[in-house]
Write a structure and sequence with these properties.
With 299 residues, this protein is an alpha/beta fold. It has a domain at 127-285. The chain is built from seven helices and 14 strands. The longest helix has 14 residues, at 228-241. The two termini are 32 Å apart.
């Protein structure tokens, strides 16, 4: 599956891996209302395993939930080879490339395609940075990491940021980024875990810093509130550190600024149900930057 994306920070999605499960630390957070699980639970033919015909997710009393089955989709694997025009490609928007159910050999095959497509930029997000670090530490990097590969972690609050970002910063990447979405609590990106880590503007182990932070509120069924102060804080932290920031959406339940025509209501007046139209936002939140990419990937 490879389709033009409505996600503002990418051009297309590519899903050579299908299926997933809740990630440790995000069971009641970012994974709880997973849009990919809901999509896969709709029992559509194209959302089922091409080998078994079984769905990758089912509707339970608690909501859409993954079955835990993870599979390499052969027919989707080579799609980027057919796309000649350069694209930013979000890899596995419906799964996690570093899921524990995948063998290194299957991950190798995905990396091989990315290596064969230098015209594209591949954006990989994971909630499993420990597997990502382990995998990439075991791969020979004679010429450095792939220059067209951006590696990122998803976080929802301070706990998930503190657990995942330090591992990201130890992983070789051309660009290191964070998707702070759905944002479910405030995050101080300058103080992670033990207090000596400053991911934005100070040295950590190899001297690497974050290059890019995406921030957004939750949308869809069961969406939880998004305080726009979390976006304001992220923008300010990024600006102070010279890091690119991309405000993706305010979500279905943004709060934290006054609506003159609804003075006593906490109901969002935004017409866009995902809060994704910047023209409806306070002007100071209309920040959608991309990282500057160095001529050579960092080692």
């Amino acid at each position: 599956m490879g389709v033009k994306s409505s996600i503002g920070w990418t051009d297309s999605t590519w899903n050579p891996i299908r299926g997933c499960s809740m990630a440790k630390g995000s069971e009641a957070k970012g994974c709880l209302n997973c849009y990919a699980a809901r999509l896969n639970a709709r029992n559509l033919p194209e959302m089922k395993s091409p080998t078994t015909g079984e769905p990758f997710a089912r509707i339970l009393e608690s909501g859409p939930r993954w079955t835990g089955k993870v599979e390499l989709i052969e027919k989707s694997l080579t799609l980027p080879l057919k796309w000649k025009k350069p694209k930013r490609i979000f890899v596995n928007s419906l799964s996690d490339l570093f899921h524990e159910g995948l063998t290194d050999e299957r991950i190798d095959r995905v990396f091989a395609v990315m290596a064969l497509c230098p015209q594209h930029t591949f954006q990989v997000l994971t909630k499993r940075p420990e597997r990502m670090l382990e995998y990439l530490s075991s791969v020979p990097l004679n010429s450095g990491p792939l220059p067209n590969l951006w590696l990122g972690v998803s976080c929802e609050d301070q706990d998930t940021a503190s657990a995942r970002i330090p591992l990201l910063l130890q992983t070789p990447a051309a660009v290191s980024f964070v998707s702070y979405e759905p944002a479910l609590g405030p995050v101080d990106f300058t103080r992670l875990s033990d207090g000596r880590i400053n991911s934005l503007n100070a040295v950590y182990v190899t001297g690497e810093n974050l290059d890019w932070i995406i921030v957004g509120g939750e949308s869809g069924p069961g969406a939880r509130p998004f305080d726009i102060q979390w976006a304001r804080s992220t923008i300010a932290q990024c600006k102070a550190a010279g890091v690119a920031c991309f405000v993706k959406q305010l979500g279905a339940k943004p709060f934290g600024w006054k609506f003159p025509h609804l003075p006593d209501s906490d109901i969002s007046p935004l017409k866009d149900r995902k809060g994704g139209d910047p023209l409806e936002w306070p002007e100071e939140l209309r920040v959608q930057e991309f990282p500057e990419v160095a001529s050579a990937a960092r080692v």
